[in-house]
Structure formats: structure tokens, C-alpha cells
User: Which sequence fits this backbone?
């Protein structure tokens, strides 16, 4: 390649970088911190947009007996939508507890003009009940917001 | 074996059958009907208690554009608990709709003394929003009860 | 009026009664039983469609320490809609408990073709938290269905 | 009063101010701004800790047809608890809409060490349905946080 051809290529690449719109895609892969100071680590997505990972309790979560707990979920294809919805399930591992607790999170990933991603989610948390008569009080509800840990 | 010994054995077996607790296990595999007349077909469980399946709209569901939609989930191990909790996600397929809708169900399977299984679940249903400012109105909530179709 | 005219009138009236739609209005006033065997007694409505009353725990409610607890709420005007929405708040009175618990119910009253009324409601139940860090786990959710006690 | 007595008084008052615990009580009375930029104006409390007021839509709420809507509710007695729970109902007034929409908010007021009050609430929003078969999709859910407008 001659010198001028080389400079033309560099120039083209530079222009491409500058002109390209912010194409930051919302992927759940990576590390996130919740508004309650919990951490979440999510694997890379497989070809069906599924992921697995771990949920790590924060310092002030109130459930001091929480251990690192596995999660599984999936998200919408970012080829189709820039701000995908997602869902995942956490099977809580607890110290000294025989009662199963499971959470489902349902949310959407938003990207702001600077490319910052935020996850907005509603969750349900169920504690196993002994009988249908006790079922009514088994489910809690709330929201979580996650920002990416860089 | 003498005649009286034989009768003693039969009697022992008969008593064992009568006295044995109902050991019916709650597995999500099979066909279910919801209290809103929808149907759900769930695969056999894999070794990690995961399942997949389909959700079929009922006649009067109100969302007439609903198509048969895939679901994925998992349940607690019935070796450990007789009335397992479960969770699954439905990615709704809709006629003539560009907006993604996803539901998460979180519930528990109960068995009554006759061995009849009932699924009690709470669900969240999210419609994708265009921006965080529209996010607040994107999530509906409700309950579903399912009984097995025999 | 001649005899045949008289009979024609009687016939017309009889037909009117038969054909007339069931005009039973959904009022919350009265006694109700929930699907968890709790009872609820609601006062007559004041001119602004407000009511007060009491919620009485059932035999198997799981919160054995529940006492009869006061409720306050309002419903839509049945002059405007035949199947009004309603909301009410219950401030739970508990034996041996210092922690405040409050529920809000939000629902709708439906009348079937026979004039039977059913209340469908979703509720939130909040337990006071010590700090914002504990707030996330303070709210439970569920549904209740009520039928009138005659 | 002599000069030294005067200084002693000033010193005593200054110490009193410094040493006094922050006795700021959480009252809902006043003006609040939600995290979705809506405003809420709440009356002074009556002797039973009841209040009324108005909810004013924000610029970007997504329901552009919202009008100023009346609210009614009550809170726990601040003589008994420093961080009271509260509940209120909003009957939404909408332009060009015949369908009733009602929200219930259930939350708690928290005071930080600087005396800043924040309201954390979960809400349900119900749209009237035509029949029980349509009831399942009538209720939305979410959270709101309010800070005082000074």
C-alpha cells in the first residue's frame, strides 16, 4: 500500500468512528450494582439471548443470611430493539434456612444519550408456603434499578 | 409358604397401601387450564428441573390477537419438597404487534389429600416502553390458578 | 278501558318485567366473605360514596394474632356505572405487635346475570420498616375475591 | 440582665440547638415532587391523621390527558412513630375519557439525619373492566419516590 492510500484508509476509519451514531447496545452481560447496593454478575449471552450469573448481597440488605445466589434469564434480541426487555430468576441461597425463596425480575434496559445503561425492573419474591391457606402471604414485591460497574 | 402366612402377607401389604401417605408429587409437566380458560402445555423436566412449553390463549382472554407463545422455566426439586415453587417466563407472540410483551409467573404447586394438583401463581406482564419516562406504566400484575387437564 | 285493552296492558307490563335487564347495583354495604374465609362488614355509603367498616380474620388465615381491624374506603357512584371500582384501607390491629401493618385494596364489583355480586381486588400489605435500607422487603401483594353473605 | 448573664443565655440556647436531637417529624402535609416529575399538594392533617389534596401531572408523564386529580388518605400518628406509614387514593380525572382510573398508594415517610423527608411508595392503578373475563388485565403496578418542594 502506498503512503497516500494508507492515509486515505486512516482518514476513512477516523471519519467512520466520528460519524457513527452512538450504537451502544443494551446487553445484560457484565457487572451491575443495584440501588440497594447489591451486585450482579451476568455471563455473555448465548445465541438465544440467554444468560446465567450470580447475585451478591450488599452490606445493608437486611437479609444478612444471604449468600451468593445463582440467576438465569434471557433478554430481547438487540438486533431487533435498542432498549431490550429482560427477565431472570434468582434462587436464593440462605444460611441456616430450609425455606426456599425465589425471585423473578422483569425489566427493561435503557440507554441514555451518553451511552449509559440503566436497568429498571420490578420483582416478585416468593417464600414457599406450607399449604394453600398460607399462600396468600408468601409474595413480596418491589423495584430495583441497576447501573453498570465499570 | 403356608396358607395363614400367605394371608398375613396380603393383609400386611393391604395395610401398607392404606396407611402409606399420599406420595403424589407436584410436577409441572403436562397440560394445565388457567382460571381464565387459557391452556398451558409443559415438557418433561430435564435433570436440572428445567422445562419449556407453550401458552395457548383462551376464548375470552380479551387480548384477541394472542398467538400460541413459548414459555421457559424451572421448579424446585420434588425430591426435596412435596409442594415445589416454580417460575417461568412467557414471551408473548401477538398478531399485528411490534411491541414486545413478556410475562413472568412465580408460584407454588399444591397437592390436596386426594392428590389433585393446583398451581397458584402471581405474574407480572411488561410491555416495552420507548423511554424511562414512559417506564412507570409498562407493568401489569395479577394472579392465575391452574388445574391439570386429564 | 275495555276488557281486551286491559289484558293487553297486563301482558305488556309482564313482558316489560321479564325483558327488563337485571338492574341490581353493586354496593359494598353489607357483609362479605373472602376466598381465605375472612369476613368484612361495610357500612352504608355516605353521600360521597364513602364507607367504613371492619375486617375480621378467618380461622386459617395464618396470622393468628389478627384482631378485628377497621377499614375505610370509597366506591364509584352506581348512578354512573353498574360495576363500580372501589378502594379501601385496613389498619391491622395485632395482638402483641408493635409493628404497624396497613393494607390497601383496589378492585371492582361485578354483577352476574342472576344479580350475584362478586368483588375482585388486588391488595398491597406494608409492614413499617426501620430505615430506607430495609424498605425494599416491606410490601406483600396478592388478590382477594369476596362474595356477599346473605 | 447583665452582660455575662446574657452571654450565658446565648450559650445555653446555642448548646440546646446543637445538642437537641433532630426531632423533625414526617408529615405528609405540604407540596411534594415525584421521581416522574408529578406534583402533589396535601392538606394539613385532621385530628384522625386524615388528609386530602391534589395530584398534578408532570410534563412527561405519558398520560397527556391527565388533569389535576383529587386524593384522600391518612398516615400513622407521628406521636407514636417517627417514620409513619401512609396510604392514599387518587381518583384520576382524564380529558375525553369515560373509563374510570383509580390509584392506591401505600408507603412510608423516612427522615434522614439532616431532617430531609422522602416518601417511598408502591402503587396499584386500576382501569375499570367491562366484565370479570377482562378483569385480569386491569391493574398496573409501580413505585414512586417523593421529595418535599420547599
Assistant:
Amino acid at each position: 500500500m502506498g503512503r497516500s492510500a494508507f492515509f486515505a484508509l486512516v482518514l476513512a476509519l477516523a471519519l467512520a468512528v466520528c460519524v457513527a451514531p452512538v450504537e451502544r447496545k443494551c446487553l445484560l452481560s457484565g457487572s451491575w450494582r443495584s440501588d440497594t447496593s447489591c451486585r450482579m454478575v451476568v455471563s455473555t449471552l448465548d445465541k438465544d439471548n440467554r444468560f446465567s450469573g450470580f447475585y451478591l448481597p450488599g452490606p445493608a440488605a437486611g437479609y444478612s443470611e444471604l449468600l451468593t445466589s445463582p440467576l438465569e434469564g434471557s433478554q430481547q434480541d438487540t438486533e431487533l430493539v435498542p432498549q431490550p426487555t429482560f427477565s431472570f430468576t434468582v434462587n436464593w441461597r440462605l444460611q441456616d434456612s430450609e425455606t426456599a425463596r425465589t425471585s423473578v425480575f422483569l425489566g427493561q434496559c435503557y440507554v441514555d444519550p451518553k451511552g449509559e445503561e440503566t436497568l429498571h425492573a420490578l420483582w416478585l419474591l416468593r417464600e414457599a408456603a406450607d399449604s394453600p391457606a398460607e399462600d396468600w402471604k408468601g409474595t413480596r414485591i418491589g423495584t430495583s434499578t441497576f447501573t453498570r460497574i465499570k
The radius of gyration of chain A is 21 Å. DSSP finds one helix and ten strands in chain A. Confidence is low (pLDDT under 50) at residues 13-22 of chain A. The CA atoms of residues 131 and 138 of chain A lie 11 Å apart.
